[in-house]
């Protein structure tokens, strides 16, 4: 690869290639409840939206494979709904009693098929963080895990753009981690919602980039460090 990567052509992106910066890929909620057509079809997705979710997962597979090949840490964030502790405000928003038990349709209940990873999965030794709410930082050790690993900035991919990806990206930004969101390795169940979520993140918390540009930046920084060493 030659030239300056597109991400590095903006000041915020250029700062990520400094010698003291170490990136990681964070994969969020790519689980059957959120990505498997047999689970999400009931949400009324159009054919175009179903294809977009599948295509985003294809791209996530490429990102994960590339990151591993370059020695970039891959961090996994998964929803692990606790059947003994219902999320009261989630129940309230759905019009249910706040203490109502989780029913069979609730996403990613621990120990169920819906909580399984879908088409991508962690390898031994990779960081895996379980969360109970939307954000990967809420009530978890994600920040400590990242700091301990020496990670200073994050690429985010996963499902869904406007919910768990957005809240995790916002919390990462507020916690002090620069964030790049992969526009083609994220998806929502409605195409305009995906676009709007990326715009909101771009305005407030993240650089938005394609997978190809992210990979180009990874290759460039990895090659530069090999030369320096």
Describe the protein in words:
It contains nine helices and six strands. The protein is an alpha/beta fold and 229 residues long. The chain has one domain (6-228): Isochorismatase-like (Rossmann fold), CATH 3.40.50. The longest helix is centred in the N-terminal third of the chain and has 24 residues, at 47-70.
Category from helices, strands and their pairing: alpha/beta
Terminal CA distance reads: 20 Å
Q: Provide the CATH superfamily.
A: Isochorismatase-like
**CATH topology tier name:** Rossmann fold
* CATH architecture assignment: 3-Layer(aba) Sandwich
Q: Identify the CATH class.
A: Alpha Beta
Number of separate structural domains: 1
Trace the largest sheet across and list its strands.
3-2-1-4-5-6
Architecture blueprint of SSEs:
Blueprint: H1 11-14, E1 23-28, H2 32-35, H3 37-40, H4 47-70, E2 74-79, H5 88-93, E3 127-131, H6 142-148, E4 153-159, H7 161-175, E5 179-187, H8 191-204, E6 207-209, H9 211-228
Parallel strand pairs: 1-2, 1-4, 2-3, 4-5, 5-6
Helix pairs in contact: 4-9, 7-8
Characteristic terms for this protein:
globular; 16% strand; alpha/beta; six-stranded parallel beta sheet; 229 residues; single chain; 6 strands; 42% helix; Rossmann fold; 9 helices
